[in-house]
Design the sequence.
């Protein structure tokens, strides 16, 4: 009986160590960005999100999307999916640490002066003012 308990303990400890290793590896591969500006186009048909790459790596999972949320009116503007974003954002690039994502502003939901939340995959930044 004692050998069975030891065997179960070793297997459980091995599983915990494996999960901790995979989790730390995933965090070390994860990229970090910072939103520097949210700007409305002249005609109001698009919003440009300017970002700065703080740490190259992966920022989106397969389900990740880019979206804007107008906090005052609780209106969400879905931008583009992760597959479309792969061609737009290159978080692994060390040559150009900044970039921009253009989000269509259908029905002109977002206006100048709007307070928005920007979501890019797992990254989320709140209380940004559209200029």
Sequence:
């Amino acid at each position: 009986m004692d050998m069975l308990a030891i065997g179960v303990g070793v297997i459980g400890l091995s599983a915990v160590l494996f999960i901790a290793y995979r989790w730390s590896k995933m965090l070390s591969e994860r990229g970090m960005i910072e939103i520097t500006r949210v700007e409305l186009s002249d005609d109001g048909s698009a919003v440009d999100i300017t970002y700065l790459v703080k740490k190259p790596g992966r920022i989106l999972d397969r389900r990740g999307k880019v979206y804007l949320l107008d906090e005052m009116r609780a209106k969400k503007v879905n931008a583009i999916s992760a597959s479309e974003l792969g061609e737009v954002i290159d978080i692994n690039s060390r040559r150009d640490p900044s970039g921009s994502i253009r989000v269509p502003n259908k029905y002109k939901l977002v206006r100048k002066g709007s307070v928005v939340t920007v979501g890019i995959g797992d990254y989320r930044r709140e209380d940004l003012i559209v200029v």
Observations:
- The chain has two domains: 1-30, 32-130.
- The chain has a mean pLDDT of 76.
- The radius of gyration is 20 Å.
- The chain has two helices and seven strands.
